[in-house]
Design goal:
The protein is an alpha/beta fold. It has helices spanning 3-13, 43-57, 80-88, 97-116, 131-139, 166-185, 191-197, 209-222, 225-238, 243-258; strands at residues 19-23, 27-32, 64-69, 120-125, 128-130, 142-146, 150-152, 189-190, 202-204.
């Protein structure tokens, strides 16, 4: 049995819960919960997170999902044990492609779910965020940070490149040189510096983080569902599209909005 199958079996066979889910009227909080290891993305935690997020994204009553970490950290990133397992199987018939399956379908599967779902995802970064955990946060639609948050570029020190969509997120916010300096420099960014650079949208006191996330969930719930569902892919695609393509997409989308009940309550566009 290959590395990917071993990790899936390990993750699905865990009896301990490493992800907490708290449902509310129109939102939910998903908390990565292995605080003793800074919520490292072990196989059980990843599989449980993927399952929870998939279920919530499929529920039309849940308009927004808050992703956060337990204890003093958001997530330390991928479990180094997985890297060691991959190294041990480099000579196998599947070579590195087997661990690629885990990276694509599990780490990347969560990122794709966040990006492609109609549900709004709010990252509430409560402490250090590194590696794939940082990638998941940067993929969210809104990113809030506690004053104790740290954006940690751990890739280079481990001999890795930015992963699971991080290079896309960083270059669009920081530009090439800014993203390169973040990667090669290796210095963690404080929450305030991340706000200045546009990596997060809001910085609040540690005790106010979840309240701020709740406020965003309330804002999302107050909007017509179709507006978020249509605007999210439009705005994400605009990052790579030309002006002509973007305005054409908007022109096709806007008339559909006029046909909804919410349009009759407009005071004017």
């Amino acid at each position: 049995m290959g590395v990917y199958q071993d990790l899936v079996r390990e993750g699905d066979g865990a009896t301990e819960r490493f992800v907490e889910v708290a449902r509310r009227e129109h939102s939910a909080v998903v908390k990565l919960n292995e605080p003793e290891r800074l919520n490292v993305l072990s196989a059980p935690l990843v599989r449980q997170a993927k399952e929870a997020l998939t279920e919530l994204a499929a529920d039309p009553a849940i308009r927004a999902v808050v992703l956060t970490g337990a204890g003093r950290g958001f997530s330390a990133g991928g479990d180094l044990k997985m890297m060691l397992a991959a190294e041990e199987h480099l000579g196998d018939a599947e070579g590195t492609t087997d661990i690629w399956r885990w990276i694509r379908y599990e780490f990347g599967g969560v990122a794709r779910l966040i990006a492609r779902s109609d549900t709004t995802f709010v990252a509430a970064i409560n402490g250090p965020a590194a590696g794939v955990g940082l990638a998941w946060a940067l993929t969210c639609d809104v990113i809030l940070a506690s004053e104790e948050a740290l954006i940690v570029p751990a890739f280079g020190r481990l001999g890795l490149v930015p992963e699971v969509g991080t290079s896309w997120a960083l270059t669009r916010r920081l530009g090439y040189q800014g993203a390169f300096a973040f990667f090669a420099g290796g210095a963690p960014l404080t929450a305030r510096r991340a706000l200045e650079l546009g990596l997060v949208q809001e910085v609040v006191a540690p005790g106010d983080l979840m309240a701020a996330a709740d406020q965003w969930c309330d804002r999302i719930a107050a909007l017509p569902p179709h507006a978020i569902a249509m605007a999210k892919p439009l705005l994400r695609q605009a990052a790579d599209a030309t002006w002509d393509t973007t305005i054409t997409m908007e022109e096709f989308a806007e008339p559909n909005c006029f046909t909804t009940g919410a349009s009759s309550r407009r005071s004017g566009a």
